[in-house]
Amino acid sequence: MAQASSSDIPKGWNQRSTTFKGPIKPVQKPYVFAGLLGIIALYIATVSVAGFVQGFLFLIGLGLGMALLYARFGFTSAFRRLVSVGNVQGLQAHMLMLAAATTLFAIIFATGFSFTGAEPTGFVSPVGVSVLVGAFMFGIGMQLGSGCASGTLYSVGGGSSSMILTLFFFIVGSVAGAYHISFWEGTPHMEPFSLAESTNFGYFGGWAVQMALFAAIYFGTVLFAKWKNPPQMKPLSTTSGFKKILRGSWPLFSAAIVLAVLNALVLAVRGTPWGITSAFALWGGKFLNFIGVDVASWDYFTGANAEALSSSVLADSTSVLNFGIILGAFVSAALQGTFNPKRVKPGVAGASIIGGLLMGYGARLAYGCNIGAYFGGIASFSLHGWVWAVMAILGTGLALFIRPLFGLANPKPKDSLC
């Protein structure tokens, strides 16, 4: 990342907002038209194959893709800015998102609320060697691949050429992790631990504990930022009025709330929180199965995974959500006029390949990614979500020394913006 000069700082920007009123590019109408046709076609196909509930999940996926793209909501960049220069804006947005999601999840779990009759169940997984290793690998991988699970999907939809490589090898890594899952599940681990159900706290008590943790982290970041005085995030250009919704960029905190609400909506519709990477293992498994590899004999492809392997990909709710994210981001980028695929440099390509492999493999070991383990896990009161976050940040720290080997720059304390 080249050092920014004072001329890079937008005039009139108050340096606290993640957006500023500035010029926006013309709408790319052909892309918008193509994206809308794709959305209509895939919605009709999804409803025809799996019903209206699945179609509704596809629409939620569109909303997730829009929120991610319009705010450029990052997990990878948030961790990188935090570790490299001490910028806490991304992590603060995470705390707001997690607080809102935890509140909604607690209500849903405590009341058993569901739009479809599906019993709401959180992502609560064991903590052990596999989570420690997998989350650490994921932390390295997302910094090399320049995107996490959600970042990979919305960046592909948004026109990032290198992220296509990252996604492909993310799938390859997921399949490799699925193949080895029986070994990793045999490594030392503790039983799944929920702050709400594995204690006497209950959902209200668990909610109170997590709110205290979020508040402590948030105000800790305020003090940390005063000490480090880091460069601020480069703001995104936006407009005013209702045009801001579809044409301009969204403030980071607004997107955090939208993502929390949509994740809770996923929980209330299908009975489990938002996830991403299980679909990657499924897509890779289906391909191997098609060319004659007996993936059905793997321990991973048993039970519900075996049923998904033999069914249409449109019957898999995680896959449908992923398709929605990509298309939602694509149309959003076209509305902003920013869809512009570029040639991939060799160093970036190499980092994307390695990063994708590490993320795919790590996500299987760690029972999820930045969405399923970190976002969904913490909102589900699972200890493994907190452990995942710590290990991914440690992995980020190591990755900062590796990135320059591939020509990838890191933010620097003397940058005006990061």
TrEMBL record:
Keywords of the record: Cell inner membrane, Cell membrane, Membrane, Transmembrane, Transmembrane helix, Transport
Residue intervals passing through the bilayer: 31-50, 56-75, 96-117, 123-142, 163-184, 204-227, 248-269, 319-335, 347-366, 386-406
Topology of the protein relative to the lipid bilayer: Multi-pass membrane protein
Major subcellular site: membrane
Signal peptide (UniProt feature, chain positions): none
Compartmental location: Cell inner membrane
A Pfam family of this chain: Sulf_transp
Similarity section: Belongs to the TsuA/YedE (TC 9.B.102) family.
Protein name: Membrane protein YedE/YeeE
